[in-house]
Write a structure and sequence with these properties.
14% of the residues are buried. The protein has 4 helices and 4 strands; from the N terminus they run ααβββαβα. By secondary structure, it is α+β, with helices and mostly antiparallel strands. β3, α3 and β4 form a beta-alpha-beta unit. The protein has a 4-stranded mixed beta sheet, sandwiched between helices.
Length: 138
């Protein structure tokens, strides 16, 4: 049983951001030293968070809960309304898989950075540099 009224639940869910989230801002800060990029291009499947058009590479910054990060403690299920949450969250995961497949078929490379991976910024920076090719600034 939900502890909030439908109107209160709606207000709370409306505050959940899809752009400019804290994890996304951390990744953007790591990229600010020498990489040029665009944000949220709706012409690409899934409207990736960060786009490197000249390199044909995109980055998605996924929240572990919303995108169902396998084996992650942040990806736990809510205690109530599982009949609502399970299909919604599994639908997010299925859509993510389709999006990555569509991008690959269009010749784009994708990197998914999970919220929990941002606990180790050195490792995240190495992942970004490896994905983008260290020293290239485009």
């Amino acid at each position: 049983m939900d502890t909030l009224t439908p109107a209160d639940r709606s207000l709370r869910m409306a505050k959940v951001k899809s752009k400019g989230t804290k994890p996304e801002m951390v990744v953007r800060q790591l990229l600010s030293m020498g990489y040029r990029y665009r944000l949220h291009d709706p012409s690409l499947p899934g409207s990736p968070d960060i786009i490197f058009k000249g390199r044909k590479k995109v980055i998605f910054v996924h929240g572990c809960f919303w995108h169902r990060h396998d084996g992650c403690p942040l990806a736990g299920l809510p205690k109530s309304r599982l009949d609502f949450w399970l299909p919604k969250l599994e639908g997010n995961r299925d859509r993510d898989k389709r999006t990555l497949h569509q991008l690959k078929s269009l010749g784009w490379e994708s990197l998914v950075i999970w919220e929990c991976e941002l606990k180790d910024l050195n490792l995240t920076e190495k992942m970004l540099n490896g994905f983008l090719g260290r020293g290239n600034t485009q």
